[in-house]
Amino acid sequence: MLSRLLKEHQAKQNERKELQERRRRDAIAAATCLTEALVDHLNVGVAQAYVNQRKLDHEVKTLQVQASQFAKQTAQWISMVEGFNQALKEIGDVENWARSIEMDMRTIATALEYVHKGHLQAASS
């Protein structure tokens, strides 16, 4: 009877050990799966952040090139506007010169008329 009780006790102890070992292995497997899932989730986020950073870097480079091109184009526009302003000033100068010449010509024409009338009157008298 004592021997039977001892065997039963040892059998129950072995069952408990096996159950405990099985539970330990299941817990380790579950922890491993959880750890892998967490790492995978973090890796997805990190990978997405990396992809986003690469896109941002590309966009920054593109924007720098476009800003440089726009600055060059703006400088060309400014140069063209300054040239246009200079041409307008020159046209204004030519217009003033033409008016001045016209006034001089009128003065000369008036003087010639006066002289011509004076000669006609002197010759008739």
SSE arrangement:
Layout: H1 2-124
Helix content: over 70%
C-alpha Rg, in Å? 53 Å
Strand proportion: under 5%
- Estimated structural class: mainly alpha
What order do the SSEs take from the amino end to the carboxyl end, as H and E? H
Give a short account of the largest sheet. Answer: none
Number of strands: 0
- Determine the mean pLDDT: 90
Span of the ends, CA to CA: 182 Å
Helix run count: 1
> Unreliable segments (pLDDT under 50, ≥5 consecutive)?
none
- Based on CA inertia axes, which overall geometry fits? rod-shaped
Catalytic activity: L-lysyl-[protein] + acetyl-CoA = N(6)-acetyl-L-lysyl-[protein] + CoA + H(+)
Protein name: Biogenesis of lysosome-related organelles complex 1 subunit 1
InterPro entries: BLOC1S1
Family: Belongs to the BLOC1S1 family.
